Description:
Keywords: ATP-binding, Kinase, Membrane, Nucleotide-binding, Phosphoprotein, Transferase, Transmembrane, Transmembrane helix, Two-component regulatory system. The structure is a single chain. By secondary structure, the protein is α+β, with helices and mostly antiparallel strands. The protein folds into 3 domains: 2-154, no CATH class; 183-261; 265-408, Histidine kinase-like ATPase, C-terminal domain (Heat Shock Protein 90), CATH 3.30.565.10. It contains 13 helices and 7 strands. It has a 5-stranded mixed beta sheet with strand order 2-4-5-7-6, with helices on one face. Strands 1-3 form a two-stranded antiparallel ribbon. A hairpin with a 3-residue loop joins strand 6 and strand 7. Helix 2 packs antiparallel against helix 3 (53-63). The two termini are 34 Å apart.
Amino acid sequence: MQLEKSLVHGTLLDDESAARLQRIRLFGVMGVVGHPLYFWIWTHVFPQPYENGWLRLACALLFIPLLFPGPLSKRKWFPVYALFVITAGIPFAFTFFYLKNAGSMVWTESVLIAVMILFHFGVTFALISMVSGGIAAIALFGLTTGTGEVFPWHTLPVQLPIFAFLIAMLVITKLDRKILAEQKRQGMELALGTVAHELRTPLASLALTAQGIQNRLPSLAEVSYPDLPILQQAVERMRTDVVRANNSIELLVANSKAPQTVSINWFDPHEAICSAIAAFPFEAGTRELVSIAPSIGVRVLGNASLFEHIITNLTKNALEAIQRVGKGDLHISYEKPPRAVEIVVRDTGSGISSTVLKRMFEPFFSYPAHRGTGIGLMFCRKVLRGWGASISCKSVEHEYTEFRIRFPNPR
């Protein structure tokens, strides 16, 4: 489905999906190496009735650009090219060789494998690719049919039920995964709504208690109570935290149900970052580990309160990574590439392995496994995408982890 979505958004690979980039590169390797390799195998090791070196070479050459998805992913033509190459190199080529080899067992099994490969992308793309590639292969077969070659009608009645069963199972598997993910999402929404409802009452009670304490503080001034300023600061902090908690609940509930209902305005990301860090519940001695670069004087489009939640989530993750290894610090800085602004949240704590890094933004994936619900980074990405922004992560285990939040067209 990611490849299909890229056609809509005009980019095959966004900055936040290293796993997707790696997938495309692996398909490039498969095409560049696989076609020549199997030409040699089916020609010299296990000779088949028909092989075509020129067709194999053309497919291998077409796959070469997929070896470099990073530099090419921003090109407007690359998504369409990638779809064309995968269709030509897999369903078209495999179906053509199947027809030329009279539906032999080798090529029947190869076509089955091709179908499984296509469904790695998604149901819609797989079906469109199979149909278009199959029709093109049948057309080429008709144009190149030689003496004695016939369409393999004798094998199709036996093989079609197998193809149909495989496709049905792959579609069901894909849909089952989507249904499971949707059920989890709905469950999280229900849980969030329940928790929000249960929290509003004690928060209201805390607000009334803080107000009551504040009303009685002037009487302490009459008896020259020495800790009166400290009490006043504590009460004011309590009231501020209650208001912030209520706002957070409302924003999170609204965003989980309908992100478009959350208001979007121009705001200063530096001010939001400073506000989030000021309100963060640091443990003793940890506030000194966090530093913020000076403001660069830009404004970005989004929701300042939700952005504070994103910074809070990244700060929490970073401090936990620092705590796990007992070393490191956290620095938040800004960069201004052309027509964008990037907020860089970098910690020098435990770092993340490449295996974990590939799954960082997957729904319900948490690391370590026992920590959290796995919706924090998913929530961050969902919110930012709603504003036309993005978030990416790179890391070296035992060295650092760096998140980049990219806002387009800042003011």
